[in-house]
Amino acid sequence: MFPPVEKSNAPQKRREKLRRALGDLPALIPAGAPRGRNYAGNPYPFRASSHFIYFLGDLGAHLPRSWLLLDEDGDTLFTPAPSADDALWHGPTPSLAALSELGNVTTRDVAELDAVVRDRRIATLPAPDGATRMHQRQLLGRIPDVQKGDDLVLVDAVISLRLFHDDHAVAGLEQAAAATAAAHRAGMAATAPGRHEWHVRAAMEQALMARGMGTAYPSIVTVHGEVLHNNAYHHPLEAQDLLLADVGAETAGGWAGDVTRTWPVSGTFSPTQRDIYNVVLQAQKRTIEAIRPMVRYRDLHLKAAETLAAGLVNLGILLGDPAELVADDVHAMFFPHGVGHLIGLDVHDMEDLGDRAGYQKGRRRDARFGLSFLRLDRDLLPGMAVTIEPGFYNVPALLEDETRRAAVKDRVNWDKLAQFADVRGIRIEDDVLLEPGGPRVLTADIPKEIPDVEAAVNTGAP
Amino acid sequence: MFPPVEKSNAPQKRREKLRRALGDLPALIPAGAPRGRNYAGNPYPFRASSHFIYFLGDLGAHLPRSWLLLDEDGDTLFTPAPSADDALWHGPTPSLAALSELGNVTTRDVAELDAVVRDRRIATLPAPDGATRMHQRQLLGRIPDVQKGDDLVLVDAVISLRLFHDDHAVAGLEQAAAATAAAHRAGMAATAPGRHEWHVRAAMEQALMARGMGTAYPSIVTVHGEVLHNNAYHHPLEAQDLLLADVGAETAGGWAGDVTRTWPVSGTFSPTQRDIYNVVLQAQKRTIEAIRPMVRYRDLHLKAAETLAAGLVNLGILLGDPAELVADDVHAMFFPHGVGHLIGLDVHDMEDLGDRAGYQKGRRRDARFGLSFLRLDRDLLPGMAVTIEPGFYNVPALLEDETRRAAVKDRVNWDKLAQFADVRGIRIEDDVLLEPGGPRVLTADIPKEIPDVEAAVNTGAP
Description:
The structure is a homodimer.
Chain A (H helix, E strand, L loop, with lengths): L9 H13 L4 E4 L19 H7 L10 E5 L2 E6 L4 H7 L5 H8 L2 E4 L3 H5 L5 E2 L5 H11 L8 H14 L4 H24 L6 H13 L4 E2 L4 E3 L19 E6 L1 E2 L8 E6 L6 H19 L7 H18 L7 H6 L27 H4 L26 E4 L2 E3 L2 H4 L2 H6 L6 H5 L6 E3 L2 E6 L2 E4 L8 H7 L6
Parallel strand pairs in A: 1-5, 3-4
Antiparallel strand pairs in A: 1-2, 2-3, 6-9, 7-8, 8-10, 11-14, 12-13, 14-15
Helix pairs in contact in A: 1-7, 8-9, 10-11
């Protein structure tokens, strides 16, 4: 059945801004279609293109096989007209007139789209799935190309809007943050020795589902936090383990949360875990505090790296001057990823457009080991939302790599490091909105200080 | 990280049987690739092709971008060789040698596949996703066609194997059934007036996730059971509602469960709900009892329809002879779908191959309203597994359709029917394996009798 959708005038304002940026250039934005899993009739949950949702609002999240056309005839939603079968299999479906009212757009049957767009000059964005991409190619007689021409004009206009979150977007991010907080609290409460990672993951995702939401990305819930993209959940929880949970909500309207917390399975950090946790926490808090208008995101990354390096020097794990350690990428042996990324309707916002969204004009990825994974390098401005997520990892693949090891061998106290073997991976991540007065942590309501984390972890028997 | 996989010799035996059926014809079976959600880097959970899993075993579920080739050189798994980056992002990954040992196959880097298959005559099955289909087309220089030629030979050989569940398959179905039972019990226990559908869905899916499993298909958990494929979960639960839950587990190795139960939100059926529930339950049990070797599945469907019609005649809702009512499709106003389908690695097993799997040679779908939705019409044999899932629905779209209503108007006591308005939809579904001695209900351990259901529903406050 069609879920209730709150009406908002934000999407219309976004469309007006987009029109101003495009001038006379018409734009066609696809929603995409459900992707089959085992077979077409057994699809994955439908997830519309974020661009489509952005310009149509929450309504857009529920309209597969639809297209939004902005041209001289106005804003038109092309969508499949409800069929008689729909009523039996899918229940009452809003009429085209009802959708028009909900979306503040003209609505037409998608069957009419072909005649409307054929042989016209229209900018477009690539559809998110193969079937719709094929349809799009037939409709326009060409393959979309986000790298040049009209499509690039549209890409830049969309980026210039989506980078800056309006009130409706902020409300969506806040809603995602609140649910994400509930998930992390549920995960901490569900943790106990003898359970499995999947037990905790289940408790966290249940908290989202019970609010009518899902996850914004595949959850990471693991005692092997050193595996950066670990989507297995089969390990038992041992009392001495740290559990790393990187789980974020996606609201019904498509807005993302993205939070990582790391907590002790037993409810109490060991002294070595506590030491490293405090180093990562310090790096995360100092980095967030450094967020202000016009700060360069790469400098935030380097600040996180340097704070982390300084903490590791204090612990005796690294040797030397923190700034030099970072300049030589020594920190990256333990912090091999970027400090964060844009967040919005996508968890890595607009990653479908490549680095055009994350890297402002004149900037490109640095090949340096310590910078190559950085997804964002813009000067931040009010309205932008980012994650800040430094970490520390004992990654065997890095530490046992002879070349890498040799390159840093005089800067690491290997015996000292060995004492911290009960820390496999720690990451602390929050979602931060830059406001004119400074950073606002949207996910501040999730235990992060050691006493709060320890208090939130279940200490009962499994 | 790569999850633990139990070794089994069943897949090798399946491959040997397939070879015997194919003679000299080589076969190439694709696993498929993860499907992007918002963007490629944020994929849906990977689900390998069921055919690939079937012939490689549980291992196959965890090998995206891989292919199984059966030819004169033996059974060869082509799979991406682990890269250095894998160890950082995905953790320790089994070597080709380790996969060879686990799968009882030769293993080679997938990069070598092109040279091995180019310009050869090889039967294949269509890949489950667009990217792999494109790759497949390039590899073989043609588009797979399950309707004719070598591919059809392979299709028929695969169907003839997958129709009959070996011990390994039965163990998979049993494992799915056990988790599905836990989910339904959790759902009943989580039900209470004032909660929402999504709360119950969350409790059910948590039970699966906490066992390291997911769902075999999008869950239906709704007080609007009359909407057959209802994937919205936003309605509040009212005390007088029935809740219909169609939820099934998928094991880590890909085997499906598919069960529907319908229970009262208050914990107590109303007299009218009880009457209809008993009619549906009777139809379901009589149909299961009728399962035996060589019974025609369409006759089971008609038996369910006739038992249902007889029950509705007893209640005074339908007027006339049950057999005649069914012959005239009057029952289909209230039971407009088929009584079930094959179940195995797919919830509708082998639906990707069209009706070739569900309809044996010489049979095809009947256009009759009461039969057109029937997915299966084979003579059942030991080793086959099917669902049995009759239902009763008050579907406004059917009952208010003037043509349909006129066609049955003298056979329905509309005033009587109106008294049962608090029944929107009831379905009762189990998974049944046909053994030589008769039917075995794999999902028998889920409350179905009224007292058991009422006892299992939470009666505490929300």
